[in-house]
Structure formats: structure tokens, C-alpha cells
């Protein structure tokens, strides 16, 4: 079956999960399951922006360093960062030292404050872009979608940076706004059950 690999435990999984040893746990317990916590959602969209042009393995390996560098992705703290903090972060070998992406996180933290004022929570805003599952094509056959384009445009309109449609689509995959586990993957039904039990933020 396309996009499927059988693991050492005999379970079929999305093919990408076999590309690095640490991906099994991330795939099985995290990727594609619905997220309603604002901090986790903000962390994820920031990490996806850092991943642009790089491998997710690089980002995942540095995730704890990113959390330490960016105050656990508490956007209210990050929004207070100054030019001195940018220079400090550019010296932090534990993260990706890309000035534009670092500055984007600080910018997006300020935008997150405004978005919470507007929508009540990040979760309520992001989940308002959840597509109709019946409208989706076969999993893992595209890198953008009309919904990721719409969410990207909505974020950019509000001043967010490094949130193009491909980055936003990866964010939607990872946080369960869509269930993009491959057909036949052992986690597809688990993710579907988690989505069915999930109370959509409003």
C-alpha cells in the first residue's frame, strides 16, 4: 500500500515515520491528533516556520532547546523580547539561528495577543479553518489545500510572518485539523477516534 511501512512491531505506519528512529514515537502519539491548547498550537506553528527549508528531524531534535529559548512558547513573554533578545538567540547553538525566523516568532507572539483578543483563543481561530473531512483527497497526496491557503491568508492579513500555505498545511496535519495518516496506517483510526471525541473550540 502506498505511503505505508511495516515497523519492527509488525504495525503498518505512514512511510515517513521510518525515516528517523525518533519519528515512531512522534508519529504514534502526537502527529495528527487534535490539539486544543493555545500554547501547543503556538509552539507548533512557530516550529513549522523554523522547519521551512529544513528537515523536521532537525527541528524535533532541537524542540526542547526551542522551548527553553522561547519561554515555553508563552507568547505573552515572547512579545516582550527586544533586539537584545534577538542577538542572544542568534548566539544559541541549540536552536536554528536564522534572524528572520527568530524575529518572526517575536512578531507572531504580538500577533497572537491580538488574535486572542479578536477570537477568544488561538484554538477557536485555527479550528474555524478545519475542512470538511469528506471533502479531502487521499491522505498525503498534497502539500497545500484550499483551507491551508485560506488560513495562511488570514494570518498574513493579521501580520503573521513565515506562515505560507505549505507551512500552514504541515501545521494542520500535525495538530489534527485534518487526519492525514495514510490509509492503512495503524494510527489513522486512533486519530479519527480522537478527532471524534474532541470538543471543537469556539
Could you give a quick summary of the protein structure above?
By secondary structure, this protein is an all-alpha fold.
Structure description:
- There is one protein chain.
- This protein has 202 residues and is mainly α.
- The protein has a single domain (13-128, 136-197), classed as Orthogonal Bundle (Endonuclease III, domain 1).
- It is 52% helix and 3% strand.
- It has helices at residues 23-29, 38-51, 56-61, 63-69, 75-78, 83-90, 99-119, 122-127, 146-157, 165-174, 188-197, and strands at residues 4-6, 12-14.
- The chain has a two-stranded antiparallel sheet.
- A hairpin with a 5-residue loop joins strand 1 (4-6) and strand 2 (12-14).
- Helix 2 (38-51) packs antiparallel against helix 7, helix 2 (38-51) crosses helix 10 (165-174) and helix 9 packs across helix 10.
- The longest helix has 21 residues, at 99-119.
- The relative contact order is 0.17.
- The model has no long low-confidence stretch (mean pLDDT 95).
- It comes from Phaeobacter gallaeciensis.
- InterPro entries: Adenine_glyco, DNA-3mA_glycosylase, DNA_glycosylase.
- Zn(2+) binds at residues 14, 27, 181, 185.
- Keywords: Metal-binding, Zinc.
- GO terms for molecular function: DNA-3-methyladenine glycosylase activity; metal ion binding.
